[in-house]
What we know:
It is built from 15 helices and 5 strands. The chain is mainly alpha-helical. The protein has 2 domains: 4-227, Chitosanase, subunit A, domain 1 (Up-down Bundle), CATH 1.20.141.10; 255-309, no CATH class. The strands form 2 sheets. A 3-stranded antiparallel beta sheet has the order 1-2-3. It has a two-stranded antiparallel ribbon with strand order 4-5. Helix 1 (4-19) runs parallel beside helix 7 (133-145), helix 6 crosses helix 7 and helix 10 (167-183) runs antiparallel to helix 11. The protein is elongated, with a radius of gyration of 22 Å.
Amino acid sequence: MLTPMQKRTxxxxxxxxxxxxxxxxxxSVTLIKGDPGHLTFGRSQTTLASGxxxxxxxxxxxxxxxxxxxxxxxxLDRIGARDLTLDHDxxxxxxxxxxxDDAVMRETQxxxxxxxxxxxxxxxxxxxxxxxxxxxxxVYDSTVHGSWGRIRxxxxxxxxSLEAVGEQEWITAYVEAREDWLANHDNKVLHATVYRTQAxxxxxxxxxxxxxxxxxVRGLEISTATLNATPPGCYxxxxxxxxxxxxxxxxxxxxxxxxxxxxxxxHGADIKADGLFGQTSAxxxxxxxxxxxxxxxxxxxxxxxxxxxx
Length: 310
């Protein structure tokens, strides 16, 4: 069994692979051309096509404390039907981004990804008697990204059992075989993901089988400090209406900005709800003011913010 810190470190490695963040980007919304998963969301990038996105959003909406539950519930049937037009539904994408500000969504993702990926990885590792934290991290990554069973069987056939060759040698052979599989796959999208196996090869080369902290993976520090930081891109304030919003330097950022952007998105504005009030936000706000017969100042006062956020 891994210690809680070793588990968090193993998960942090995969978070870095998935969203370039130690803690994971809970509001990440991505769409990669050619990706069979289509629309992907969250800390471990659950996908529309797999059906896991529906399961995650359903769990969130079932929580009475879910701040964005009523908004996402309107999409549940389409998500459940794996409606691929959602790949390009910008308002849904903005709701998903905003939901990461809700601690309920972050907790839902943590529990969901533990059940869907981590527990499966633990069971798979136990079957082969993999005991090292780095070995389990390798299994976990393949469980999230795909290919664990296929490459496992290939290595068992080529190199024999883990007991016969030793865990470190077997995991090293597995990482090498998986890199070859990714680099030569018919789906060229996978070719670029060899950075995952390359990162593991570097950890193996350095002997970090215990995942002792601190570590550096793909240029990012994994330490007690970074593991206990606030997740990137998540805001818990300022509250809407507590300040006017306008284009300024440095840019206004926070929960109030995100919710105003989400309100503009609900009115059809082409805007990304990233929580940063930049030139696009000011321009879309002016469009909204023009449409409502208001002075097009590009400034949102408390009254206008309440109108957009309601």
